[in-house]
C-alpha cells in the first residue's frame, strides 16, 4: 500500500480574504432572583413593550416568595431576561409560567426557551415536572410560538383552552385599559430531561 502525500495549496497571507470578525456573544448566567430584583424584573417587563405591567411590588413578591420557580438571566452582569412562575398548589408537578421577558439585545438567541427549560429541571421541580402551563392572549403570537416549540421539542401535546374571558376583567372605563381574553396552554406530559 502506498501513501500519497497531498500538499495543501498555500495562498500568501496578503491575498487571502479576511473572514468577517464574528462578534462574540458573552455567556448568559441564569440565577434565582430575590425580592431585591423586583425592580429589575419590572423594568424588563416594561421595556419588552408587550407584557401587562404589574406593580413593582408584585415582582418583588415573586422574587421573595417564589425564587425557585423564577429565573433572572444576566449577560456581563446586566439583566437580559426573566421568567416568573410558580408551581400551582393543586398541581405540584406543574410549572405555571406567568411572564417571560427578554431584552432587545438578547432576542433571537433562544433565551426564553432556555430559561423555561432551566426552571423545569431545577428545584423545586427537580426534573419531576410533568406539565408546563401558561396563559397567552390571542394576539401574543411570539408566546404562542414559544410554547408550541417547547411542546414539539418534548414530543408532548399542547392543549389550549379558555382561562379568563374578556368580560372577567375590569371594564375599560374602570381600569383605563382594555384586556384580552387569556387562554391556558397546557403542555404535557413532559419527558424527563437535563437542566439547560
TrEMBL record:
Q: Where is the composition biased (Low complexity)?
A: 1-25
Alphabetically sorted, this entry's keywords are: Acyltransferase, Transferase
Q: What is this protein called?
A: L-2,4-diaminobutyric acid acetyltransferase
Please give the InterPro entries that the UniProt record associates with this protein. Answer: Acyl_CoA_acyltransferase, Ectoine_EctA, GNAT_dom
Its Enzyme Commission number(s) read 2.3.1.178
Where are the residues of the annotated region Disordered? 1-36
The N-acetyltransferase domain covers: 28-176
Any Pfam family: Acetyltransf_1
- The reply on keyword Transferase is yes
List, in alphabetical order, the Gene Ontology terms for molecular function in this entry.
Answer: diaminobutyrate acetyltransferase activity
Which leading EC class covers this enzyme? transferase
Which protein family is it in?
A: Belongs to the acetyltransferase family. EctA subfamily.
Question: Which residue windows are transmembrane per the record?
Answer: none
Can you cite a GO biological process for this protein? ectoine biosynthetic process
Q: Which NCBIfam families match?
A: ectoine_EctA
The residue stretches assigned to a coiled coil in this entry are none
Pathways per UniProt? Amine and polyamine biosynthesis; ectoine biosynthesis; L-ectoine from L-aspartate 4-semialdehyde: step 2/3
